[in-house]
Amino acid sequence: MGECDSDRPAAEPDRQARNETPAEQLDRNLSGLLQELRVVQTGVQLPGFLLTLPFQARFATLSMSMREVYLAVVAASIAATVFLTALVAAHRLLFRRRRLETVVRAGHRFALMGLILLGLALTGVAVLIFDTVAGSVAAVIAGVACAASFITVRGAHPLRQRLHPH
């Protein structure tokens, strides 16, 4: 996966420029990570919504392949929730044990994996909705468009910025 501020060689000059101690930098990193996780909170609510779908009348009309997509979406959204909330659990379990660096590093990786899984789940939701409303061709187009936008916005663009910062 990727690296957090405390993983990369530029962390020391960054800390010096900000006049931070290592502990202050970790506190800042943790705060930033928690703020980012608040942004994805809405997406984490997806599993609750998905639980209601089998009880809707139109669910019975889904093809077997769309039921499989539904189950994959449920699994991805549950896994995304696990990863995106893992930082809170790790922080609570390791609170005041002088393990903040471990929490920040693990939280960074959990957040990345959770974002990937959330992107998969949301792409699957688009496929399900478009298939139900407009048919299989529209579902494929929606799925490809969603996947491409997630890959571009969440992956390619940040990686490009990382490789070419200016």
Automatic annotation (TrEMBL):
<feature type="transmembrane region" description="Helical">
    <location>
        <begin position="136"/>
        <end position="156"/>
    </location>
</feature>
<protein>
    <submittedName>
        <fullName>Sodium:proton antiporter</fullName>
    </submittedName>
</protein>
<dbReference type="Pfam" id="PF19853">
    <property type="entry name" value="DUF6328"/>
</dbReference>
<feature type="compositionally biased region" description="Basic and acidic residues">
    <location>
        <begin position="1"/>
        <end position="18"/>
    </location>
</feature>
<feature type="transmembrane region" description="Helical">
    <location>
        <begin position="110"/>
        <end position="130"/>
    </location>
</feature>
<keyword id="KW-0812">Transmembrane</keyword>
<dbReference type="InterPro" id="IPR046291">
    <property type="entry name" value="DUF6328"/>
</dbReference>
<feature type="region of interest" description="Disordered">
    <location>
        <begin position="1"/>
        <end position="23"/>
    </location>
</feature>
<feature type="transmembrane region" description="Helical">
    <location>
        <begin position="69"/>
        <end position="90"/>
    </location>
</feature>
<keyword id="KW-0472">Membrane</keyword>
<keyword id="KW-1133">Transmembrane helix</keyword>
